[in-house]
Specification:
Radius of gyration: 40 Å
Number of helices: 12
Number of domains: 5
Helix content: 10-25%
Number of strands: 55
Shape: flat
Largest sheet: 8 strands, mixed
Strand content: 35-45%
Distance between the termini: 104 Å
């Protein structure tokens, strides 16, 4: 079994199996009965089918759903919320074994170390040492490099770089620990926690055996090593797997330490597959580690599947034949959050090419007859099925008319099949097509077309066939055909419908049966209802705005139509930020009874500002709206600001020096200051000065008559585009007094 396919229940309940026979059976009443030489099976899915479908989670993540949405879909009535998970979990590394060998391996150039503590004795290990802990008779022994160095039980092993390394230091390292005779392979290296071992008499095998556990923090150290799905899968599916694994482990922890294995969980499919450091160090392992971190809420709690406030036993499995199982249909016990739900993603080969459709698998006549305890089998009846479509009871008839039945799981196991669904054409109910719309809520606008897309599964049977789009009457509730199209080679279909008015409509897609020589191998089926809303657009018309001067902020005015719907709505005025390339909030206003609004703004910098008015959705039901969110045309507003000029003078009549500053310095640098004096009854330009990089200027004037003279200091505009300047020309009028 692939290491990322969880649980050892693969033969208990798995979806979608179909069977055909190589000879056509003749009814038992006939004088001559043809006994087929073999039966050929095909099917879909792998796993017990209870809880979360891993392939289904992958498909939902690919369609944009979050981990929370995926989990709350598969675990009916459960919720994803924070729950404490910082406890130490005991993971079984060895059970009913006689020995375990180990060595410490550094992950950097810094030497790694380990210690083995037996009672009061401490055995030190370097990277060159190999330790073997074994049970000899009733004694637990520790040997280092073949030499006996300690005896006793229990035993604690720590190594450098862990959370509690003891005296071993912080050098990053792994403990290579295995019950095999060599250290070959990568699946037995452990980065976190500590090992605890003990020798104890086992009533199972009637002798003293060795038990070993890796004690790791559930919050992160354990989950980083859980290897149930490929790390390359979509982020949301990885996070959903992390949360499901955490929830499962929490239930096991809360049940207490198991007496036999001295553990909370096993490291294999008896619980969750735990690969240790191999998981996060293998291909794309950093994505899995990131998914673990993303589900941590704090240092002590993380996202967990909860039912009635407690962790749910979040079972999961690889894939189904189109629908998950109710727990009681497989294990006999009804669990409220383990209900049968649609899982059509498992039938999609783009998400699972191996088990979306497996087979053919040929079983000989003798194999089938032996499974049912009959001398031969000429006919199978598989009409008794669960809500998931898997077989509840399998019935078989011999050539003499004797009938025997088997539970669906038993038949699946005895026939060595991967699922419970199999079919004899013409004599038993057949599976239906799965018609799966991409979305069951489609928003469009008046004058545009609403696209309805989806897939029909299984693809091999559906490709090239016809699907029909039907519309439901809002008056009578009846369905009528609208149009039809052909399913593509990849199983997809697309319908596109227009509307000239704002309206809500309900559609569905119907697929007819596939007929093979008079025996239908797939029944027709219809999709879930598709809600479509064609929405009006608001007519938002901001008024033209004049250039703003003297540091005031723009006021955006305009109208919204239709008036009867717009009145009382709040419009949001947004300003374009060219740095972040996003629209930012600048102001808002309520539309009055006449459909008008006046929105003061704030925060606009000097220069050309672009504004847009945004009106929200309106008249929405289940996310579909009759008025869609609408953004107005862009209005450009030039926010300007005058220069600020200061000046002073000194000297005597006939020769003076005037100096000052122009701000802001960054904009005024290099500008020319024209200096004029009031002489002989008129203004006369008496000099110029250039503004420095610090914003200062200085000019020497030699044609001055009088001790108190009116001056003007004029600065032209700056940052000008097409004659419009962000900093406007300014003039300072000031009388200067000289000695």
């Amino acid at each position: 079994m692939n290491r990322w396919i969880s649980r050892a229940f693969a033969l208990l309940s798995v979806p979608a199996v179909f069977v055909s026979i190589l000879a056509v059976p003749v009814p038992a009443q006939a004088a001559t009965v043809s006994v087929p030489n073999s039966f050929t099976f095909t099917g879909s899915g792998w796993g017990h089918g209870i809880g979360m479908s891993q392939v289904g989670a992958r498909g939902q993540a690919a369609e944009g759903r979050t981990a929370k949405q995926i989990l709350e879909y598969y675990y009916t009535g459960a919720s994803v919320a924070s729950f404490r998970d910082d406890m130490d979990l005991r993971v079984s590394m060895a059970y009913l074994k006689t020995s375990m060998r180990m060595r410490v391996e550094g992950l950097t150039s810094t030497p790694a170390r380990a210690t083995i503590v037996v009672g009061t004795k401490t055995v030190k290990l370097t990277e060159k040492d190999v330790a073997v802990i074994s049970v000899v008779g009733t004694q637990t022994q520790v040997k280092r490099n073949g030499v006996l160095v300690a005896t006793g039980s229990p035993i604690v092993v720590r190594w450098s770089g862990t959370r509690n390394p003891g005296a071993n230091g912080s050098a990053p390292a792994v403990l290579n620990a295995t019950t095999a005779r060599t250290f070959d392979g990568d699946g037995h290296r452990y980065r976190y926690g500590k090992f605890e071992l003990r020798g104890k008499y086992s009533s199972v095998v009637k002798r003293t055996t060795l038990t070993a556990v890796n004690v790791v923090r559930l919050h992160d150290e354990y989950l980083k090593g859980v290897a149930e799905v490929p790390s390359s899968w979509p982020e949301a599916s990885l996070q959903a797997q992390v949360v499901a694994a955490r929830s499962y482990a929490l239930v096991k922890y809360r049940a207490g330490v198991r007496g036999g294995c001295w553990c909370h969980v096993f490291k294999d499919t008896r619980d969750l597959v735990f690969a240790g450091y191999l998981k996060e160090s293998s291909y794309m392992g950093e994505r899995w580690a990131a998914a673990v971190k993303a589900t941590n809420v704090s240092a002590t709690s993380s996202q967990t599947v909860l039912f009635q406030g407690a962790p749910a036993q979040a079972f999961f499995f690889h894939s189904t034949g189109g629908r998950t199982q109710n727990s009681e249909d497989v294990w006999g016990e009804k669990v409220p959050y383990l209900r049968s739900v649609d899982d059509h993603w498992s039938l999609d080969p783009k998400y699972d090419s191996s088990f979306a459709l497996w087979g053919p698998k040929v079983r000989t006549q003798s194999t089938v007859a032996s499974a049912f305890g009959l001398p031969n089998v000429v006919r199978l009846d598989l009409s008794d099925r669960y809500a998931s479509g898997s077989v509840r009871t399998a019935k078989a008839w011999s050539s003499t008319g004797v009938m025997k039945s088997l539970a669906g799981g038993t038949a699946t196991s005895r026939l060595s099949l991967l699922s419970r669904w199999y079919h004899v054409p013409g004599s038993t109910p057949v599976p239906s097509f799965t018609v799966a719309p991409t979305s069951v809520a489609v928003q469009s606008i008046v004058g545009a077309r609403a696209a309805m897309t989806g897939r029909v599964l299984p693809v091999k049977r559906a490709a090239g066939s016809t699907v029909i789009l039907q519309r439901k009457s809002a008056v009578t509730g009846t369905w009528s055909n609208v149009t039809k199209t052909t399913v593509s080679a990849t199983g997809t279909f697309t319908f596109s419908r227009p509307s000239s008015i704002a309206v809500r409509q309900t559609y569905r897609v119907v697929k007819g049966p596939v007929n093979c020589g008079g025996n239908c191998f797939y029944k027709g089926s219809s999709s879930r209802a598709i809600a479509v809303a064609f929405a009006n657009k608001w007519a938002v018309a901001p008024a033209a705005v004049s250039r703003i001067v003297a540091q005031t902020q723009p006021v955006i005015r305009g109208t919204v139509a239709p008036l009867n719907v717009a009145a009382g709505s709040t419009v949001a005025v947004q300003r374009w930020n060219p740095t972040t390339k996003t629209w930012v909030r600048a102001g808002s206003a309520v539309v009055d009874a006449s459909g008008r609004f006046t929105a003061p703004t704030a925060g606009s910098p000097v220069g050309v500002n672009k504004f847009s008015v945004l009106l929200p959705k309106r008249d929405c039901v289940a996310g579909l709206c009759m008025y869609r969110e609408t953004r107005s045309a862009v209005v450009s507003v030039h926010v300007t600001k005058p220069f600020v000029v200061t000046a002073a003078g000194k000297g005597a009549s006939g020769r003076v020096v005037v100096a000052g500053s122009v701000s802001p310095a960054a904009v005024s640098k290099g500008k020319t200051v024209r200096v004029s004096a009031y002489q002989r009854g008129r203004w006369i330009q008496v000099g110029t000065a250039t503004v420095t990089s610090t914003g200062t200027f200085r000019a020497t004037i030699t044609r001055i008559a009088g001790k108190s003279v009116p001056f003007k200091f004029a600065v032209t505009g700056s940052l000008c585009v097409n004659g419009t300047c962000s900093y406007t020309a300014t003039t300072l009028a000031k009388s200067l007094t000289f000695v």
